[in-house]
Amino acid sequence: MEALKNLLCIGLISLSLGCAKQQLLTAEGVNSTKNKDRVKAKAVLVMPGAVGDTNIRYFGRWNFSNATQYESDWGGAYIKVKFTGTTVKIKVGNNTNYYAKIDNGPWVSYKGVSGTVNLTSTPLANGTHTLSVAQGKDYSYVFIFQGLILDAGATTSAPQVGADLIEYIGDSITAGYTDDQANVSDYAWVCSEALGAEHTQIAYPGIALTNNFGINANKTGMEIQYFKQQSLAFTNSPDWDFTRYTPKVVVINLGQNDQSTQVPDSLFQSTYISFLGKVRAKFPNAHIFAMRTFFGVKAAQTLAAVNARIAAGDNKVHYINTDGWLTRNSPDYTNNTDVHPSVSGHIKAAGRLQPILAPYLSGGAQP
């Protein structure tokens, strides 16, 4: 009789353990579904600062398929994380330009660097610090992140991130191309940071909205390249998985390179209408803003495209009239020209854009 009781107890314990294991697997499945924008958690220990460290937050279009390095191929992609200790180094797999910001300090440029890059030539005070690293200002826009090197025993934690995401679509102006720190100093970045929002910049110098135009040798237009994982520097880019993140607001600033390469007004307008529809299909609930180019070219056609979408029943598409925001042939532009805004010009434009976007954002931050 005693032996029978023991057998029954063992059976009940096995059943309980089996149920607990199934609950754990179910919970893991739910979590992986809710976090499509992150690398799926693995049942292994990850060193603090390694690419798979879930405390590191990634913004931009990232490829997480390689477990040893993560790659983004659009300008302005960035990471954010908190870490303890007094020093931090970043390992990068390609030679390009990077910008790093620690705590509330300025953006520091690391130009033409690769391998292991020391971000703290002067050690920090002991404690917890916040790190952001972004890439920008070249024609490849490749950011190959291979992890961080921290002090012995240092740990990481999740940074504060904006509750909302803004996606910007544009050309060299949205990429801040003529400015020394490019993407981290342009109107898109400055405006988003002032609003407390995270952001992506799907922008490339010389690109036109309309396919077969633009000033680059590759004439692929943003009407096609926007839907790709990689920038115009990659001729065989795979399609982007739009389920990876969802912006609350999308801002489009295109037309300058269409004008300079003589895209007919009627073609630009029809292309813009189609493009707005395709962006809407990817983000059904986002507010989409089409900006008048700062220079004012293709303004009537941009407005007409917005009105066409509104007439079709899309009440979340808007036109932004930028007339008077910047003064041509003045310090608002690099070298006092009238094409690319200067750093001060970008700040000025960001200040005008900020109150327009603010009512459409929830604000605040989340861990």
Return the structural class.
alpha+beta
Major sheet size, sense and barrel closure: 9 strands, antiparallel
CATH fold-type name of the largest domain: Rossmann fold
Mean pLDDT: 89
User: Which class of the largest domain in CATH terms?
Assistant: Alpha Beta
CATH superfamily of the largest domain: SGNH hydrolase
Q: Report how far the terminal alpha carbons are from each other.
A: 57 Å
Shape: globular
Number of domains: 2
Spatial extent as radius of gyration: 24 Å
> What percentage of residues falls in helices of 4 or more residues?
25-40%
Count of alpha/pi helices: 7
- The CATH architecture of the largest domain can be given as 3-Layer(aba) Sandwich
Strand content: 15-25%
Q: pLDDT below 50 for ≥5 consecutive residues: which ranges?
A: 1-37, 39-44
H-E string:
HEEEEEEEEEEEHEHEHHEHEHE
Beta strand count: 16
Tell me what you see in this structure.
With 367 residues, the chain is α+β, with helices and mostly antiparallel strands. It has 2 domains: 101 residues, Jelly Rolls, CATH 2.60.120; 206 residues, Rossmann fold. Helices cover 26% and strands 24% of the residues. The chain is built from 7 helices and 16 strands. The strands form 3 sheets. Strands 1, 2, 3, 4, 5, 6, 7, 8 and 9 form a 9-stranded antiparallel β-sheet that branches. A 5-stranded parallel β-sheet has the order 12-11-13-14-15, with helices on both faces. A hairpin with a 6-residue loop joins strand 2 and strand 3. Helix 2 packs across helix 7 and helix 5 crosses helix 6. The N terminus is likely disordered. InterPro entries: CE2_N (IPR040794), CtCE2-like_dom (IPR037461), PCW_deacetylase/CE (IPR052762), SGNH_hydro (IPR013830), SGNH_hydro_sf (IPR036514).
